[in-house]
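Tokens in:
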């Protein structure tokens, strides 16, 4: 599958490199839309721009062959979990491509779209990808969790803002 590429260094090519972290949430698609509206379509200098869609799959949990109740844990279940993870990544990338398609900006503004999929802890993989791809900016959505949820779950956007070396744009959920 095309999006199953491992994250590799992009090299020292010319042009802007924008990483947009996408997931199954509406907030990430809003961040992608914001990116195309505010960062890419205003590309008046016609600088070649590569927009990387980055999706991070959660790691597949490791199980012993016998579960807590003493039943043999089938390899089919692990395989189904892996298939679900691949299907989810494919679905997220399709949604992101449809957002991109709504802007019709690729040919006019010298825009290239690339899909990258990683696996692991989202905040660590996003930081790793931004460094390896030598991104100029990271764009991500905010789930806008309250204080307690953020304290328990942690904030991926907060972590990335503190650990990446490029500017980070966190697109908040619009108030409706």
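Residues out:
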């Amino acid at each position: 599958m095309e999006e199953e590429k491992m994250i590799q260094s992009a090299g020292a090519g010319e042009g802007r490199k924008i990483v947009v972290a996408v997931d199954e949430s509406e907030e990430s698609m809003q961040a992608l839309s914001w990116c195309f509206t505010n960062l890419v379509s205003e590309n008046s200098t016609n600088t070649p721009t590569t927009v990387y869609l980055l999706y991070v799959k959660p790691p597949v949990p490791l199980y012993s062959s016998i579960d807590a109740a003493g039943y043999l844990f089938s390899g089919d279940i692990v395989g189904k979990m892996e298939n679900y993870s691949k299907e989810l990544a494919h679905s997220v990338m399709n949604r992101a491509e449809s957002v991109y398609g709504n802007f019709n900006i690729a040919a006019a503004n010298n825009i290239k779209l690339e899909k990258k999929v990683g696996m692991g802890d989202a905040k660590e993989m996003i930081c790793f990808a931004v460094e390896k791809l030598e991104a100029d900016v990271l764009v991500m959505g905010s789930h806008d969790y309250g204080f307690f949820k953020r304290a328990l779950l942690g904030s991926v956007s907060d972590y990335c803002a503190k650990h990446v070396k490029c500017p980070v744009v966190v697109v908040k959920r619009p108030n409706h």
